[in-house]
Design brief:
2 domains
Length: 360
Amino acid sequence: MSKTNDFKIEISFKTIIFTIFLIIGLVIAWELRIVFFMFFIAYIISATFRPAVDFLEKKKIPRVLSTIVIFLLTFVIIGLLLLTIAAEAYNQLNNLFSQLPTIVFNVLTGLNKSLPLNTIINPQAIKDNLKDIVGVLMKMDLSVFTSGLSSAVGILSAAATFTIAISMISILSIYMLLRKDDVVANLMVFFNKNNEGRYREVLKKIENKLGGWLRAQILVMFSAGFFVWVGLSLPALFIPNYNLHNYALPIALLVFIIELVPGFGIATGGVLATLIALATGNVLLIIYAALLFIIIQQIESMLIVPRVMSKAIDLDPVITILGIVAGSLLFGVMGVILIIPLLAVAKILVTEFVNHSEKN
């Protein structure tokens, strides 16, 4: 006679309530993710400047004054860079847009000579259409966008939102820097007092990692943009009929921005510069443009990134790329920018958890 085993699962009322509140909390956290991003950005900025503030404080400079001086210097440097390069970059960008139809026409014409694309692509028709589009874009002014009340309100609302976000991030960063202790250390009240020392050590590792990441990221972005600008501008002093210097600044700025993801900016700038060189039909210029960006890519990947970025983040390139894709799908541009430091934090937490589990 066989016995039947009856399994009974009992769920307490407390468990049900906890599960409900957990789900509600996760939903609220997702809806308020922009607040988390703002706090995270402010925390990264404060972690970046904290070593400098601590150093000035050790030199008997009040912490408040040290914080204000560092932020003022940062804003002044950014402002000077924008003022000195904005006008020239705008002129070169306009020049690039005006030459875009001719560049595309020359590239397509060259392709038609080597590939049977005449029945599919009509370079002259594409050139004429691009001329019309570029002509319309270059004649646009602010009145085009503010012609309707709703458009004006939308633009003002977006500008106000951006300004408020920047202001809040700056205020949060300053507040965090004014504290001698890491602001996240206040979370210790929620943890076991017996493990407070270990938790503080983990938070210090996270702060150092995030600060190191931003400092390394800025160095990589500036170095990539600078090398591209110099590489595209310098040959104009020695090579007659060289024209890539006319577009050096906007290409360098594009590389600087996209280099938020190391390597991607240089690759994008290389494609753009090579296409412009292809339009000239000058074989030496085409070879130079391609070689220039290959060399810059090698310098970054072999010298700058291993010495600076890898030391600051220490993430596997495959994980980084997959994380960037996931961040883009989940959070858009903000996810692409912040996914690397988030992964760095996750790695510290997982490593600490594994090490602690092995010890026990």
